[in-house]
Amino acid sequence: MSEPQRTSTLNNPTSDLTGKSAVVTGASRGIGLAIATELARRGASVVITARKPEPLSAAADEIRAAVDGATVVVSPGNAGDESHRAEAVAAAVELGGIDILVNNTGINPIMGPLMDADLSAVRKIFDVNVAGTLGFIQEAYRAGMREHGGSIVNISSVAGLRSTGAIAAYGASKAALIRMTEELAWELGPRIRVNAIAPSVVRTKFASGLIAGDNEAQIAAGYPMGRIGEPDDVARAVAFLAGEESSWITGETIRVDGGMMATGGA
């Protein structure tokens, strides 16, 4: 029997982000929407991005409904588009500066092993998941983080930490993202901190094919915490890394996986 969907119960968050401006990519639903909502709940002004304008506007309305007085700006566009990245970061600057960047956009159009992978699809995965992320970081750096610092959080995956065979190209791209996070932490410190989150299966549309029907109970049984993840689980970890409580943490990848990898499971 599956557990009910959980929502944030953190009414008095300790990480105060009042006065900060954040960009959250891929925020029209799921993990990205939960992250943007949590940052807004903690006082940050948020710029949210996604490809399609209508779902993005609906997400902004959802954040405003959840957080009284929230400042939310929408910036629709493709993460692979340089002009879109510039516009999204510029919108944060107009809110007072770019202090927080959360790179959540990711795609996985193909399944299966690398030997069967279509190379054009592999290139697209790496272009969005790795190169697009680096493009957003470069834009935020040039737009103000270089001078006043900030916090960058990249959303990776446990598939980037251990081979699965099922989503091999996606996992390879997320492994590259983890390695890039470490490289940038070294390159951009001490003013800018760069960390990553590696979730396991989280209840989102992106993961719907994995947790359909009775499959959820089977997956949950393999987790020490006895359930699959919820978007808020990831959002609260991101908010911690965005705030001052994590001021001596950089180059780190935090597993948000319900203990799955501790069991030796893939």
From TrEMBL:
InterPro entries assigned to the protein according to its UniProt record, in alphabetical order: NAD(P)-bd_dom_sf (IPR036291), Sc_DH/Rdtase_CS (IPR020904), SDR_fam (IPR002347)
UniProt keyword terms in alphabetical order: Oxidoreductase
Gene3D superfamilies in UniProt: NAD(P)-binding Rossmann-like Domain (3.40.50.720)
EC number: 1.1.1.47
Naturally occurring in which organism (per UniProt): Gordonia mangrovi
Stored Pfam families: adh_short_C2
Signal sequence interval, chain numbering: none
UniProt key word Oxidoreductase: yes
Molecular function GO terms recorded: glucose 1-dehydrogenase [NAD(P)+] activity
The family this protein is said to belong to: Belongs to the short-chain dehydrogenases/reductases (SDR) family.
Official protein name in the record: Glucose 1-dehydrogenase
EC top class named in words: oxidoreductase
Matches recorded under PROSITE patterns: ADH_SHORT
